[in-house]
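hey can u run this one w/ zinc ion bound, need the structure tokens asap thx
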Amino acid sequence: MKSILLSLLFIISSTPEPNYKKQTEDMIKKFIELSEGKVVETDFDNVVVIFEEIKDEEHGRAVGLCYPYPWQPKIVIDTEWWNKWYRADSEREQLMFHELGHCILNREHTEKKEVENFSDWIENMLFEMGFFEKKGYLKDGCPSSYMHPYVIGSRCIEKHYDHYIEELFNN
Ligand SMILES: [Zn+2]
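ok here u go:
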């Protein structure tokens, strides 16, 4: 028993640093493939992807950022969010594709983050009561775009993957 426990501890403590470079490269490759020719490898020549803890209060609880500098677009991914043990691969990919949406496809958010006025509030309320579809959301309550301002959960991603990819590259 003791030796099992010890070897288990060894496995946990020797978990290697995530290979961010490989993860990023694989995702970019997939992004290019899924774009069906809308983006090509050379579009990524100057793109920098950095993994670090995002602490900047200015960005609220942002888990990913894109700085669309024309000479060198920069993406920052929050390592704490990325490495959560329960994080699904599909969620990591969604975050990366969202930031690439900003930095490579020049897309902005489809929705604003906060309820800003009374009509937004009414719209929210009616949506929650099931009266009508809300702009920016699908009928089942999943966000309608990867460019939604908040990260999307794996349940929605898996359910609507084809729609999200199609929407991402065709808007
Ligand atoms: Zn964003």
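The chain has one domain: 19-169. anyway lmk if its weird
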